[in-house]
Design brief:
alpha/beta; Heat Shock Protein 90; Rossmann fold; 3-methyladenine DNA Glycosylase II, Chain A, domain 3; five-stranded antiparallel β-sheet; four-stranded parallel β-sheet; 17 helices
Length: 529
């Protein structure tokens, strides 16, 4: 990895491009595609010029890793009061001195956004602005980086097919060779994990703690505090965690505080009117991108809590304990300046349970259970969420105001990685908040990189071949009864025909099909292959 740092001086336009020149030289040396180099140069140069034109100076730090360029730019004020307005093409507050030299056309931030794969910006008037962006150096776009963090253990599968029936995006297959997840359709909603009786599904987080370093921050899910009996004081919890995490701990906080932040943004920007979705749950954002793209304009342009926390930890490596595979996927992202380690929640919980002494446990205290803000509508559980979004897409329920959707029943407390019932875990976590006297209204970062529809995989990259495969699928599906029962291991008759044509299975397994087979014939007739 190569690090590049540069100081950017106020109104010094002659030296403002030095970092972009150094980065270009390095990218050329390692053989990065010229199109990607041009994107990087535009983004870095615009960031440098913005600091020189609009601030009292600042600094730029960049890291070039094997597959990513990541850049952080910090300035010394005066800050941005309206980020949404600042992102508008043509809007500029540049002084006359910059305009006379041809700068300050109001395209700096939009150009950075357009040429990066990840882009975030945080700013407060009087405190300066921090911009972070990353560009993938591989020959693919940001969309192709999106997959799934779920893993499977085929040896545990008993072919009960429950996962096939509950998947909201038809991403699951269970043919003779075992379970298979179509990554281009999976949204990491954990519906399959929840119903699997033999624990076939897991996700890729580590089951070992990273080496302790000075600049590490542990980001722990609030739900973790509800997985063991209540301790006598919050300090007892901190003492229990210290040998594992050190003193730098950041809890992701209960949803109510984040919801207050989304609600404030909704009231200020939308006047408290109109249907909007608060993107708290990363699975829901991915679900809408894939299955309900027409509803993307209704998403608040804000980051999820975990993304906001990751983007704010500029000078620290982040160790997260994700509550679900969707959080794990989102935390990884593309990064180089600081590392993101993920520790499996069940492993971390087991470490913690070993350190809790029985004498430190207190009796449960009567506390108010979690209640969402009265101005937010909360829908939990992937089935209820899909039913709700179906109604919205049909033109109904548009008068709901601000809506918060969770893939898990009970929100993050109901993730299948936790063993304690969601309501109990939620109540225990609130107990700690009351002991601490917590008053936190957390404002997520503004999402300057808009969510876009997530495309499914094509039948073939060649249009003529894709059309031929589509014809085969249509012919095969006519031979099926149309029950869409899922007994074949595919979600429907249509998807089973697609699986056959695309080579995902060679089995012709419909149990309801009246089909004359010669002895030993178990696969599709040759004319369909």
């Amino acid at each position: 990895m190569k690090l590049i740092e540069a100081v950017i001086e106020k109104e010094n336009y002659s030296t403002a491009g030095q970092a972009s020149r150094k980065i270009k030289e390095s990218l050329v040396q390692i053989g990065v595609d010229s199109v990607i180099i041009r994107k990087a140069m535009v983004a870095v140069y615009e960031a440098e010029m913005n600091v020189a034109i609009h601030t009292n100076g600042g600094k730029l730090r960049a890291a070039i890793a094997r597959d990513v360029l990541e850049v952080t730019v910090e300035d010394e004020g005066p800050g941005i009061s309206d980020i949404q307005q600042a992102m508008t093409a043509g809007y500029s507050t540049a002084p006359d001195s910059a305009r006379e030299m041809g700068f300050g056309a109001g395209m700096g931030l939009p150009n950075i956004q357009r040429n990066t794969d990840r882009f975030s910006m945080s700013s407060q008037p009087g405190t300066g602005t921090v911009i972070r962006f990353a560009i993938s150096l591989a020959a693919h776009g940001a969309d192709s980086l999106m997959g799934t963090s779920l893993t499977t253990d085929p040896s545990k599968c008993i072919h009960c097919l429950k996962c096939v029936h509950v998947c909201p995006t038809q991403a699951m297959r269970v043919h003779r060779k075992g379970p298979e997840i179509l990554t281009h359709l999976c949204v990491d909603c954990t519906a399959c994990m929840r119903v699997c009786p033999t624990d076939v599904f897991d996700f890729k987080a580590d089951r070992v703690l990273p080496e302790r370093k000075e600049n590490q921050i542990f980001c722990l899910p609030e739900a973790l505090r509800g997985q063991f009996p209540l301790l006598s004081t919050p300090e007892t919890l901190q003492e229990t965690l210290y040998p594992i995490t050190g003193d730098k701990i950041l809890f992701s906080h209960t949803p109510t505080y984040w919801m207050n932040g989304y609600l404030r943004f909704y009231q200020e920007r939308c006047g408290g009117k109109g249907f909007k979705i608060a993107p708290l749950c990363p699975s829901i954002s991915r679900l809408i991108q894939l299955r309900y793209p027409s509803l993307l304009p209704h998403m608040l342009p804000l980051m999820t809590p975990l993304l906001s926390l990751r983007e704010k930890t500029i000078d620290h490596d982040l160790v997260i304990v994700p509550s679900c595979p969707a959080e794990f996927s989102q935390a990884q992202g593309i990064h180089a300046l600081n590392k993101v380690h993920s520790v499996h929640p069940t492993f971390f919980q087991s470490l913690l349970m070993k350190r809790i002494k029985k004498e430190e446990q207190s009796r449960p205290v009567q506390t108010a259970s979690f209640k969402a803000d009265k101005d937010c509508l909360v829908v939990t559980g992937i089935n209820q969420v899909c039913h709700f979004l179906d109604q919205v897409e049909h033109g109904e329920l548009q008068d709901c105001g601000l809506v918060v959707l969770y893939a898990c029943v009970g929100g993050c407390y109901g993730s299948p990685v936790w063993t304690t019932p969601a309501a109990i875990a939620e109540k225990r976590s609130r107990y700690y908040d009351e002991l601490e006297g917590a008053q936190r209204d957390l404002i997520p970062l503004y999402r300057v990189q808009p969510l876009t529809p997530r495309a499914g995989a094509r039948l073939d990259s060649d249009m003529k071949t894709a059309m031929a495969k589509l014809g085969k699928i249509n012919e095969i599906v006519k031979t099926f009864p149309g029950n869409n029962c899922g007994a074949c291991g595919s979600p429907s008759c249509l998807t089973h025909a697609e699986d056959i044509v695309l080579g995902r299975t060679t089995d012709y397994e419909c149990p309801f099909l009246v089909f004359t087979q010669t002895p030993g014939q178990e696969s599709l007739p040759e004319e369909f292959l």
